[in-house]
Amino acid sequence: TVTLTDAGDTCSSGYTATLTDSATDSGGSVDCTAIATVPDIDCCVTTLTCTSLPSPTVECAFDPEPGEKTVAEVATKIEGSCSGDIEFVGDPTVQVEGDSCTTTKTRTYTVSAPGRGDTTVTETCDETWTVVDTTGPVISNVGDATFECPVDDGTNPPPVTDACGNFDGEATSTDGTLIGGCSANTGTKTRTWEATDTCGNSAIPVTQQITIQDTVAPVLTCSDSTNSLSNVGCDAMIPGASAGDCTATDACDGDVSVDFCCTFDATNGFTRTWTASDACGKEASTVQTITVDATCGTA
Known about the structure:
Layout: E1 2-6, E2 15-25, E3 28-38, E4 48-50, E5 57-59, H1 71-74, E6 75-77, E7 87-88, E8 93-98, E9 102-114, E10 120-132, E11 138-139, E12 145-148, E13 160-161, E14 172-175, E15 179-180, E16 187-194, E17 206-213, E18 219-222, E19 229-232, E20 246-250, E21 254-256, E22 258-265, E23 269-277, E24 283-292
Parallel strand pairs: 5-10, 12-17, 19-24
Antiparallel strand pairs: 1-2, 2-3, 4-6, 7-9, 8-9, 9-10, 11-13, 14-16, 15-16, 16-17, 18-20, 20-21, 22-23, 23-24
């Protein structure tokens, strides 16, 4: 009796042949066994190799995403493999890793093909693609602006767009030094708008010229002693006056000083003028006239 047994997993192992026989004579019976290794001349070993699939990287999004590959695109068999087709084992799976700044998707295919004897060889092959956000947001251009002192409207940031949708907030600004004005609170300065998305990408800064001007005169407030008087009697005392009879405030400069002066002539009587001037040369004034009875001084 001859029995063949596979001696191993490789073709070089071949088969083990076991020969068993028996003989009987007058002296009794004898069992004989002979063992030998027999080459497997039809041996095959299947080796599957994954194809090097493209691993693209794009900005923001794939549109559309890579489609599923055919089995011929995914894997091949090396020369000398056993006969039989490569087939998919089930559907591919997709794993997603990362965040909105960098997202990697891996599609895993499982393939199989006939191996030696009744065996089946399987292999897993990966296909990856990556979405990144390396582009900064875009700040809309914003026009120059002029404001009346002391108003400085910095609360209206320009619109910001982001191609990948990773900006959530508003542009922020920093101001340069105010220069070239007629007072400490007027002049022109450069306002720079900046924005950074959640992935750390910064926008190209946008600049805006801000002009603060003062075109409004101070506000002069005077006491009743500055009211005009007419036909003052010949023996009447002309009331005294000083700069302190009026005070002035200015929206841009705060408190401002008041100047006082007076004139007299025989025809018009006394004229008193209180004048407040701000740092930009805007003035406010009030005039008091005092006339004397025309009969005074006549016989």
